[in-house]
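Lay summary

Proteins are chains of building blocks that fold into shapes. Our project writes down both the chain and a compact code for its shape. Here are two examples, one after the other.
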Amino acid sequence: MTITLPALAKESGHFYYRDGSPAYFVENKSKPGQMRPTTLRDCRKLGLKPSVTLIIGESNKPGLVNWKMNQVLLSALTLTRTDGETDEAFMQRIRQDAAEQAKKAAERGTQIHGWIEQGLSGGYVPDEGVEFVELAWKELKPLKQEWSHEKSFATERYGGKVDLHSTAGIVIDIKTNEKPVADATLWDDHAMQLAAYRFGLDMPNADCGILFVNHKGMESRLVMAEEKHLRRGMMMFNALLDYYYAKTGL
């Protein structure tokens, strides 16, 4: 029987089996032959582990909040109010336009991230994606590591998938955006993600960093995290993990 997969579920909604394999989708019993995104109910029933990004989603992300606010402001500045349009109607149109622009930006970032992953692992990359792979490799090559790609894992309480790691002890996550890399900085959610990843890979002392790729200015920069920030990040992540389990009843 042919199994049909829906569009990939958002990373924030991912779950993992106990053996570390992804459980992004489950069989849709009401529609034989089709799959649907995994839900919290499935997680309870199958004993799945929530993803690192799902847990971090319980916290406030200043960088993301500011970006969303800027999207709304840009829409408000560029849209023209129609004659007779009420405040409520105009505000709703602004929100819809901002949401659409955010969706397009997210889709573009996901596409570029995919090209980079494929290129670094030796897979096929279309011509339009080659330059992004080269941008990423420019920062990674000086490290002289043998990289493992897209490694998934599960601990007793959570799971995840790591963009890049080396057995020599380096964990890297790739972020694509439109911000100048000169301004790139690590936020608390970055520290939490990296710390949770290295623990999940059983590499508690690994060096960790974020590889930022600006797909508008065509720049890249690798920013490594300080050990004190990683230790703090793990403490924050564990607190959020306890909160998530208490809230969901898992």
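And here is the second example, written the same way.
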Amino acid sequence: MKPLLLLSRGHDDAEFLYACHLSIEQALYLRFAPGDDELMVSGMELDRARREGRARRIRDREEAGWSERQDTMATWVDLARRVLAERALSEVRVSPLLPAAAYVGLRAAGVEPEIDHRLFLDERRRKSAEEADCIRAAQGAAEAACVEVIAQLAAAEAQRDGLLWLDGSPLTSERLMARAQAALNEIGYTASEMIVAGSPECALPHFRGAGPIRANAPVIIDIFPMGMSTHYHGDLTRTVVAGQPSDLVQRMHDTCVEALDAAVELLREGANGRDVHHAVCRRLLDRGFGSATKGFEGDPSAPRMTHSTGHGVGLDVHEAPQLRDLDYPLLAGDVVTVEPGLYQTGLGGVRVEDTGMVAADGFQNFTTLPRSLDPADYL
């Protein structure tokens, strides 16, 4: 097999992290054969790379032949050419995500890159016990941050303007996200993005949230933190109402919880992601709602699910496999989300999401929080 070449695309480059366990802005990694790999970094990063990284040989890029120029990408490409020339090699495998400038630069330097479209795909799907523990811990961090948000909602009071107020000012999505981020940081996690979205804007599933939160209406809280040391993610969503939910919102939430349970019953090694997704869509349809999936559209005027049932979680918050209208056999070791949701323009939405691992005998749920619209049930 051709040697593997990776150029780090930044601190959160999941492929680079998986290959050599190092979060770094710029570095070159070459794997010539199992157990024969090399990592090249700047002198500033050398001690950290030797402490945290995993490669048979870790060396200063200057030692390897670094020749500084204004075009940093061209400099890394030249360094790769020099190291490969040491072994009389002129062909490499590269990631589909390799920057185009690096791909073109390699070819111009006489190194032929071959894109490996399945790079680490199978390996990253089958989570080891250590990886599963990292994701479980990240899920616990997501739960802690979610409870922090819910506690703020529970403590707030509805005013005559219909908004929630706390400590003398309106309670906003921004305030709640700041509290969630602080709770994560205190325990070694971070979330570059999260969702704390009130109604009616949360009818848009990926609306991050902005402005005051309304009483008696659903608030979607979707937190997907990353461990600062492990770089593995969790993914959790809960929907709560500070006040009294409408009958329709309560029915939407009850249906999403039922659909989540229906999916969990099917999750095991050998199941198909399409069947899991269809089971969720069928439950929504049977309860008078619908989806965007062909054959499960339902009443076009009713709340509907406009996204997939779930996705893999690991070094990326979205990775293989998929739980959607796609033939996708599941494997033991897959860590996936299950996140049924229902949305209606002008009303808002609800979504309930757990994360866990597929096993031969079923689903190991990493999530422990209640699934309730009532904030009091989380406190």
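What can we say about the second shape? The first helix runs from residue 14 to 20.
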